[in-house]
Amino acid sequence: MHGCINNYMFNHLFIALEFMSKKYLYLSVFFILFLSFSGHSQELLSLDDCRKLAIENNKNLKIATEQERVAYYQKKEAFSKYLPEFSAMGAYLKLQHTINLLPDVITIPSIGSLPSMTIPTNGIGEVDIRNIYIGSLSLTQPIFMGGRIVAYNDVMKNAELLAKTQKNAQLRDVIAETDAAYWQVVSLASKLKLAQSYVDLLKKMDSDISIMEQEGVATKADVLSVRVKLNEGEVALVKVENGLSLSRMFLNQLCGLDISRQNTLVDEQSESLNINEDIAIIPNVDEALSNRPEVKSLEYATKIYKGKERIARAEFLPQIGFRAGYMWTNPNSRHGFEKKFNGGWNLGLVVTIPFSFGNTSKLNAAKAQTIISGLQLADSKEKITLEVNQNAYKLTEAQRKFTMSEKNLEKADENLRYANVGFEEGVIPTSDVLAAHTAWLSAHSEKIDAQIDVKLSAIYLKKSLGRDF
Known about the structure:
This protein is an alpha+beta fold. It has a single domain (46-95, 130-465), classed as Outer membrane efflux proteins (OEP) (Up-down Bundle), CATH 1.20.1600. Helix content is 67%, strand content 13%. The protein is built from ten helices and ten strands. The strands form four sheets. It has a four-stranded antiparallel β-sheet, with no helix packed on it. A two-stranded parallel ribbon has the order 1-8. The radius of gyration is 44 Å and the shape is elongated. The protein starts with a helix and ends with a helix.
């Protein structure tokens, strides 16, 4: 009996252990998958990583790429105008009646004493061509088109270059926008750390002031003033957290990532950013005018309109073309409308002389477009010159602010250290300590803003100069 009970208990224990093993196995697999998923949902991204993702996923850049392809094939199509055109034609024609080459009755007039006679033809001249089949091959080769084909090819070549330039401009816009969003996230991430440090300092001070109140060396007003500052700091912390979340969403959208994805940027972990390369930028207006895609685009547009002007002028000139072909017909006329396919070749020159008064209006409109494009180019150069000078001034101003912020930061750190020591020793009032905390927060925040301003000013100056980022 004991043996049966032991076997029974052993079996149930084995089943329970097996169940628990499976349960832990499933939990382990689930935990591994969860970690794997978490690892994929969060990633460390550098500035170059964000640029690559933005370039790969930007819709406007993809549109510009397709527009470049369109311009390429249009240029190929324009070149084909130099080549002969071949065509084949086939036709079938159904007629209601046959053709009679002779009348039904032939009348012979009277000659001398011989009277006139009428002789019936009895369908001798009847030809059955009620079913006609026609086939032909033809070749057309332009010889002189007034310069239209050459001008059209120049227009399409410049149109392709224009499409490439516009794509390059779109690429620069994408990179600049991505860089600005990246540094905005870095700025807010640094401010989040700063706000958290500020709140931690105030919490420590709140704890200290509460103890001092209990010991009778601080008043209730001192406690309340610290707690008011603490509440303000916590509110500011929430605002920074919300701003950082929105900035991450915007950067993710630019990079083609899920907006809820929590990526960490490489420069978030840096205490201080390297701005030496940004400070070393030397502005040059001539460089900007030679490199800017906007200037190149307007230069190509001006060439395009000049080409259209030449096309409009070609409308006044005669056009000469060569034609050759071979035609088959059934019935064929070579052997009395024999019902067999037969044919022959043909050669010819075609000359067209235009007499349209509308061509003058076309030419004048093309000239006006050329003038407009030239004025737009001149206006663009003036605006670019102003933009380069403005961005150079902004970068210089940002550099000065950064230098001043570093000096202010040193003083604010030292002031806070002395204020904390004096507060602990009871020789500095609460209001002075809170003022030192506020100055410390402001100095650190100004340095963060100054660093990011230098970065952004350098980005916009490089963009205005037409340099690579």
